[in-house]
């Protein structure tokens, strides 16, 4: 009995240490693109009639469209819930009297890490959804900061209890060019510029007082329905046999992610007081591409739930929300939502890997509470 008691006490003590090492954030500040936008694109008025402003977008959890590019919650929503925080309000709701005490979301669908001028110089500026790039989002944060804290000490105390999520960002920098005919060789040359913009933004946030940063890499774009549709190949060798994804495009994502991880290492040396966590979106997603049924994706991972037909249910002339498209009856059985973005169910699996491991090291939260898609 004595041995059992000591063992129990020891296990409890170790669990208590683990919990104490896990930061209990009181606010979250998020930057990025459509993978984490909770309404800024809609509020920006960039498009007169964006499809994300109406059902079936938002149908699963919110039961109405919120400006999220999914059927329900996003990774950042699950992170907020794990820490008992409200879903992040979009920064552009500031004029509506929104309270940002527990954080704010600066992400905008279509946003890029590089400024718009770069894309206009490359003759692809006309394809941009928005001009609210990462530097614009940083400007919004700096504008909001005086309303969050007044003195340097007050800001330091506040930001020590805050999580800064920088991304995913950079995917659109490649998408815009790829979708108008850019080659992988051309795009590979832009990776250092994209990564540099992300590292520069992370550095700026640390200078503003951030000490806890989560920086996600890119998803495996070769498994995305839009890439599988636009760049389909008659050559079977172009696809990995296990998952059916385009090997070369997944290789590109991995190249970006390796460059990003190297950049983060330089930041850790420069700012040893900051905790800079790389979030492995690629690895988290590949787990359900490898084993769809084990993750509840009985309808598959490569075919979109909502679309207008085609081998992967992605049709550029009848995209989700447009005339001719149809949404599936059970989005939770699909990983892909609209050909470009994932379902709430897929984001839930990615979020779980970030919050509890192994997609972040150390994980954001040690204790294991329930997290998953809506029923």
From TrEMBL:
UniProt gene name: LOC107410926
GO molecular-function terms, A-Z: hydrolase activity, acting on ester bonds
InterPro entries from the UniProt entry:
GDSL, SGNH_hydro_sf, SGNH_plant_lipase-like
Record keywords? Glycoprotein, Hydrolase, Signal
- The protein's superkingdom reads Eukaryota
- Pfam families found in the cross-reference section: Lipase_GDSL
- The name this protein goes by in its record: GDSL esterase/lipase At5g45910
Task: Kindly give the SUPFAM superfamilies that the UniProt entry links to this protein.
Answer: SGNH hydrolase (SSF52266)
* Alphabetical list of CDD domains matching this protein: SGNH_plant_lipase_like
Point out the signal peptide segment. Answer: 1-22
Q: Which residues cross the membrane?
A: none
- Which family is it part of? Belongs to the 'GDSL' lipolytic enzyme family.
């Amino acid at each position: 009995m004595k041995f059992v008691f000591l063992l129990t006490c020891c296990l409890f003590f170790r669990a208590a240490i683990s919990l104490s090492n896990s930061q209990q954030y009181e606010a979250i500040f998020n930057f990025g693109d459509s993978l984490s936008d909770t309404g800024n694109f809609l509020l920006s008025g960039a498009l007169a009639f964006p499809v994300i402003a109406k059902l079936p977008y938002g149908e699963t959890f919110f039961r109405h469209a919120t400006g999220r590019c999914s059927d329900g919650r996003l990774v950042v929503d699950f992170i907020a819930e794990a820490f008992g925080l409200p879903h992040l309000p979009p920064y552009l709701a500031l004029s509506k009297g929104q309270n940002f005490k527990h954080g704010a979301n600066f992400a905008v669908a279509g946003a890029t890490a590089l400024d718009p001028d770069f894309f206009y110089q490359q003759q692809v500026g006309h394809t941009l959804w928005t001009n609210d790039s990462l530097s614009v989002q940083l400007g919004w944060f700096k504008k909001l900061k005086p309303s969050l804290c007044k003195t340097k000490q007050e800001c330091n105390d506040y930001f020590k209890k805050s999580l800064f999520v920088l991304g995913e960002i950079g995917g659109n920098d490649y998408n815009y060019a790829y979708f108008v005919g850019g080659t992988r060789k051309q795009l590979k040359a832009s990776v250092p510029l994209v990564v540099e913009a992300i590292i520069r933004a992370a550095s700026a946030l640390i200078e503003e007082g951030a000490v806890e940063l989560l920086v996600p890499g890119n998803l495996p774009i070769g498994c995305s329905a839009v890439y599988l549709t636009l760049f389909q190949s008659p050559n079977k060798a172009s696809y990995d046999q296990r998952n059916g994804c385009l090997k070369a495009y997944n290789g590109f994502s991995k190249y970006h992610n390796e460059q990003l991880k190297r950049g983060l290492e330089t930041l850790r040396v420069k700012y040893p007081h900051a905790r800079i966590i790389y979030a492995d979106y690629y690895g988290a997603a590949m787990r359900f591409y490898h084993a769809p049924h084990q993750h509840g994706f009985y309808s598959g991972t490569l075919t979109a739930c909502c679309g207008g037909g085609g081998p992967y249910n992605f049709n550029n002339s009848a995209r989700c929300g447009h005339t001719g498209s149809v949404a599936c009856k059970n989005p939770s059985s699909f990983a892909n939502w609209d050909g470009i973005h994932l379902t709430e169910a897929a984001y839930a699996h990615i979020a779980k890997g970030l919050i509890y491991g192994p997609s972040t090291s150390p994980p954001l939260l040690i204790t294991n509470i329930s997290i998953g898609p809506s029923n």
